[in-house]
Amino acid sequence: MEKIRIEGVSFIYSKGTPFERRALDGVSCSFEAGKITCLIGHTGSGKSTLVNLLNGLYRPTEGKVYLDGEDIWARPKKITDIRRRVGLVMQYPEYQLFDETVYSDIAFGPKNLGLDAGEIDLRVREAIAFVGLDEALLSKSPFELSGGQKRRVAIAGIIAMRPEVLVLDEPAAGLDPRGRREILGGLTRYVRERGITLILVSHSMEDMASYCDNVVVMKDAKVFMQGTVDEVFSHPDELDAVGLDTPEITKLAQGLIQAGIVLSGALYTVEDVRDAILRYIGGNAQ
Amino acid sequence: MISDITLGQFFPGSSILHRLDPRTKLLLSLLYIIGVFLLNTPMAFILYTLITLSLILASRISMRVILKGIKPIVIVLIFTMIINILLTSGEGEPLFSFLIFAVYKEGIIRAFFMAYRVIMLIVGSSVLLTYTTSPIALTDGLESLLSPLKLIKVPVHLFAMMMTIALRFIPTLIEETETIMNAQKSRGANFTEGSIIKRARALIPILVPLFVSSFKRAEELAVAMECRCYRGDVGRTKMNKLKYRLRDILWLTVGALLFAGLILLSVKSAELSALGEAMRILFYKI
Ligand SMILES: Nc1ncnc2c1ncn2[C@@H]1O[C@H](COP(=O)(O)OP(=O)(O)OP(=O)(O)O)[C@@H](O)[C@H]1O
Ligand SMILES: [Mg+2]
């Protein structure tokens, strides 16, 4: 079932000035309920613009955005309700922290929802656990944390609002591999547990292969391809044409295949390839 | 969107105004601004309107952009006009009166002139300077014009550098404000509803991150400049040296002639000598 559907959406920055720029051009795509969808595309292809439309921060110049089949701009006065249902973590969210302690910063969103102190406390602690931060940090100033910790605090701030749809714009950009795994792993575990729809913006084909169900590929302000991970990976030449590389591990597997080691099945993650190799060895042993 | 503000923005282009030496444009706008305050006959107003229109044509900036630049001050302007109309008393009978106010012909004329002057001031200086001169060229020109002050130990270069940096970071700051506002909106912040106190409090989540990043950026910039051995203007050469050309001399001559004509037009009936009157009006108005 579709959670969010976008129909013929165009978005123009600085409309009516010489700096006018069409960042989205007739984009249509949909995001399935309870699934993890990866939004992928090269720099400047319009990914961030698209996610800012999903929770009504921007209003489409043309076209419609539907949440559960309802046009989110049907009643512009109620757009804050949409923002509560669709939680958006923007690119580089660590620059938005402002409060004195990590605790009160994470509590900012729930407070705006009008929750009572007990509920807020519950949600803050739950959120911080999901992003893998220690409770000892709660009383610290957010400005004393490392970049990766700040990022997690910012993500926790949205999780604590318990949105139905979680949208993250490059949550793992600029983090080391372990940090990436922890953040993305924690997030995917959280959304699968709760049946939340997750939309993940990424540059990385590896992330997409390891964490996502569906993929939307963007190119030059348009949707270039859309489907399940397997469907999209079955068009390596087209992916190459948009400047998206197949994962390193897939290249390795292809190298092995060319060397005569016949691997089968999906070969997009290290685990895939490990299993394929084990199958191959097992098959040869019999 | 805030980033759509056009007042004070540079629009790259290749019109004759774009190509003039920044010093020429600075001098011309000085004359232009003094001229605005000299206007006091209908003939002079017509002349000024024509001059301004030809400047707009020469800049090849679209009328839409110019009107957009005036838009932010329209409300203030209307408000001051009303105050002017209501509070100016004149000789003879009022045109009409209501409550405690009496409206005189003088008040209306004064309000009109005031609005006309402000609009001309904004249009003229944006077309002559900000719209058609890059911030760098502008400060270069200013530094060069003010360089005689170096003799009396005024740190002209320092001021010019500070201005360049400030101008350079205005768009960045606007962009950042917008990003942070969007981020806090995503967390349920509301800047447009509630009492004044509530709205003022709602600004904290914007201002704190903005200050933090501004200080951080200032520090990084300072380090970057020192790494490139910046140590003020002593012994510093310029890549693009300013040079007066024939067209600059032509424009300056025409400007000076028009200015002289304006003085004659404005003060021809005065008892005082033309120049004395001009100075008097000038200092009185400023
Ligand atoms: N605030 C803005 N004003 C004007 N143009 C913008 C603005 N933000 C983005 N753009 C332009 O819109 C286009 C799409 O930008 P967007 O940020 O959506 O790309 P992206 O796919 O998220 O890129 P990245 O992977 O680098 O984050 C770009 O060409 C960009 O220059
Ligand atoms: Mg982006």
What does this structure look like?
The complex is a heterodimer of chains A (286) and B (286). Chain A is of the alpha/beta class and 286 residues long. Chain A has 3 domains: 169 residues, 3-Layer(aba) Sandwich (Rossmann fold), CATH 3.40.50.300; 70 residues, no CATH class; 40 residues, no CATH class. Chain A has 11 helices and 10 strands. In chain A, the strands form 2 sheets. A 6-stranded mixed sheet of chain A has the order 6-7-8-3-9-10, with helices on both faces. A 4-stranded antiparallel sheet of chain A has the order 2-1-4-5, with helices on one face. Chain A is globular, with a radius of gyration of 20 Å. The model of chain A has no long low-confidence stretch (mean pLDDT 89). Chain B is mostly helical and 286 residues long. Chain B folds into 2 domains: 176 residues, no CATH class; 91 residues, no CATH class. Chain B has 11 helices and 2 strands. In chain B, strands 1-2 form a two-stranded antiparallel sheet. In chain B, strand 1 and strand 2 form a beta hairpin. The model of chain B has no long low-confidence stretch (mean pLDDT 84). Classes of the chains: A alpha/beta (286), B mainly alpha (286). The interface between A and B is medium-sized, with 29 and 28 residues. Magnesium ion binds next to helix 1 of chain A. Adenosine-5'-triphosphate (ATP) binds next to strand 2 and helix 1 of chain A.
